Predict the 3D structure of the following.
Amino acid sequence: MTQDECARLLATAMLAYPNWLRDIGETRMAAMVATWHRMLQDIDYQLADAALAKHVATSQYPPSIAELRSAALSLLPSEFPDAEEAWGEVVHHLQRTGYTRTPEWSHPIIGRCVQAMWGSWANACASIMTETINVDRAQFLRMYATLTKREREAALLPAPVKELAGMLAERFRPPGADPDLKSLPTPGMVRTEEADSA
């Protein structure tokens, strides 16, 4: 979205909420447009306009930037398979692919969930037994919900915040750490010297 489109969006919001920003001066209004543009520039204008319309239809209070970003994300179709579909895919690959081959997932988040739960596909195949399949299913669904929630929250972050987070992650990465490591390991998934000596 351009700065002019952002100014139009803000003007529409001011019309919908007539008492909001009524006595704002020209300097503060320019600063507000600049701030909105900085935090919303990665959203297409039509999507932002639809998000504003949704907000106006459902809230008696003017929108915050966070509310507009959230409304915009809610208007987009989910990019993730449903949790039950994802679990169905895991079960399908348990039956068809087995531990000797690597499954091809319909979405990478399914593979990340398997990796987070079991450490590897071979471990998943070895640990999922028919008598514990319901427990494994419940744990997978919880883990999948957590991972998709994180992905959606990351999608809500404005582009400048994502860039800053990337720079900070690079700056504070421990020496010798894997630069492709996206997150910390799940507790219990990494063996420590203390655990080995016990």
